[in-house]
């Protein structure tokens, strides 16, 4: 079962883009553009975590956090604060009184996801995409996450580090489209210089090594790829 994240952010583009990224990671996102709306959602559907912007129209993030902590329904829900402020006083106030973590803007998606996973691990919760076993399998493809070995029809097949990570991404997101830009973000990172064409070559290599199983990785025109179950 996926974890429910209540994301309260007044910047529409940031709200939509990060919500999409989090949903790609397997989380269920409840979105709100104001503190008032966020509190209304929290009261009706208690989230597992609140991702909360400090600067909001109307009641601000600190006010929202205070109300969440005063409610029996949400007093134990962890809050991760987001803000463009780098002031030490704001950070201390948030961490001492409300938040389990504090992330400053501009937000790097990989950093955000890593920090959220750390919070969920402490809570003994997990998103639907976090593996609890050391073996990940899809059809006749098996990945040993401990040894980073790939087996196709029970035969060991040599994959590079990047190919292994990319294949794992496809399996974890089976039946969901993975964009080329998303692949670059998740596998290579923001600081890695690589073109979308290079991603296509990596996928071609993976398909070839998987043999008949490789046909399950389908191209989605102008977007990316999807692994069919």
Could you walk me through the main structural features you see in this protein, from its secondary elements to its overall organization?
This protein has 8 helices and 12 strands. It is of the alpha/beta class and 229 residues long. It has 2 domains: 119 residues, 3-Layer(aba) Sandwich (Rossmann fold), CATH 3.40.50.2300; 93 residues, Orthogonal Bundle (Arc Repressor Mutant, subunit A). The strands form 3 sheets. Strands 2-1-3-4-5 form a 5-stranded parallel β-sheet, sandwiched between helices. Helix 2 packs parallel to helix 3, helix 6 crosses helix 7 and helix 6 crosses helix 8. About 3% of the residues have low confidence.
What does the secondary structure layout of this molecule look like, with pairings?
Elements: E1 4-8, H1 12-24, E2 28-32, H2 35-44, E3 49-53, H3 61-70, E4 79-83, H4 88-97, E5 101-104, H5 109-122, E6 135-138, E7 141-144, E8 149-152, E9 155-157, H6 161-172, E10 178-179, H7 180-188, H8 196-210, E11 217-220, E12 224-227
Parallel strand pairs: 1-2, 1-3, 3-4, 4-5
Antiparallel strand pairs: 6-7, 7-8, 8-9, 10-12, 11-12
Descriptors:
single chain, 229 residues, alpha/beta, Rossmann fold, Arc Repressor Mutant, subunit A, 2 domains, five-stranded parallel β-sheet, four-stranded antiparallel β-sheet, 8 helices, elongated
């Amino acid at each position: 079962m996926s974890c429910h994240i209540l994301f309260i952010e007044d910047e529409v583009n940031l709200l939509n883009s990060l919500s999409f990224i989090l949903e790609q990671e397997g989380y269920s996102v409840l979105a709100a553009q104001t503190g008032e709306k966020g509190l209304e959602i929290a009261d009706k559907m208690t989230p597992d975590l609140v991702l909360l912007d400090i600067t909001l129209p109307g009641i601000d993030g600190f006010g929202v956090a205070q109300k969440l902590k005063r409610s029996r329904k949400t007093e134990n829900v962890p809050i991760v604060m987001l803000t463009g402020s780098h002031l030490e006083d704001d950070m201390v106030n948030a961490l001492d009184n409300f938040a389990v973590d504090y992330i400053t803007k501009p937000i790097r998606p990989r950093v955000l996801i890593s920090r959220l996973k750390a919070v969920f691990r402490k809570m003994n919760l997990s998103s639907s995409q976090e593996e609890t076993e050391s073996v990940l399998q899809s059809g006749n493809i098996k990945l040993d996450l401990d040894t980073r070995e790939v087996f196709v029809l029970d035969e060991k097949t040599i994959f590079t580090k990047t190919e292994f990570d990319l294949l794992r991404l496809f399996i974890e997101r089976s039946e969901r489209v993975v964009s080329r830009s998303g692949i670059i973000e998740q596998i290579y990172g923001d600081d890695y210089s690589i073109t979308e064409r290079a991603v296509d070559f990596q996928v071609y290599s993976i398909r070839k090594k998987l043999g008949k199983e490789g046909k399950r990785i389908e191209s989605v025109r102008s977007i990316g790829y999807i692994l069919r179950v």
